[in-house]
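Sample intake sheet
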Amino acid sequence: MKKNNKNNCLRTFYEKMSPQEHPVQTEIALKGGRTTKGVMKINNTVRRPHKETSNYVNKILIFLYDNNFLFCPKFLGIDELGRDTYSYIEGFVPDEIGNTTIEQLCLFMKIVREFHDKSILFLNDADKVLCHNDLSPCNTVFVNNKPIAIIDWDNVSVGERWQDIVYILWLWINIGSHKRSEIDIIGQMQKALQSYGADIHTQTDLSDKLLWRMDKVLAETPMASPQYNRIKDWVGFSKQWVLENNVKIKNHIG
């Protein structure tokens, strides 16, 4: 679809066709999208239920596409059922965290840096960026073991760089894992921050920022959720590591 037609609804295309002309479309439910149900793949597109926040998200994706950010889906319009339609990005999306490498993390940090930098143009505010707010490996498409795209932009909002960064460090290094002693977590944090090009403001009081982000995840999890106790334990285990290593983090990072 041409750039100047990106905002045209796909509904128009279907309305002009006779019933016999409608293409045969097989809907395949996508296993991703933990916060959004009913995400379907049809041919080379992804259809997602339209939400209250969808117009804002789609405006951002259009902006990113127009500004040559190539690491996110392209918004294609609204389909005949009123669903948001995006380009489908071929690749592998992990079901869980814990299997990514420091090399993959460093590549991903460069992608996030480009996203943050371009978002300044969208906001026209040098002091703020757009935060994806869920930059988990489970919202990342991999090809040949390399991260190549970010998906699931439902929670994007205005914030500061560190809000995305500490979440990435937490999930990609998997601080909440019982296997955490097997790796140099602080060393991996340093490498990741260096790949991003993190400034002093981002690195200062990193422990406090990590704890804030961990508390936020638990606070946003409904207590009635069947996953609440598991998430509570995971957050508690992660916070324990941060508190135990607070001095080391401050000495080596900030």
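Comment: The two ends are 47 Å apart (CA to CA). The chain has nine helices and nine strands.
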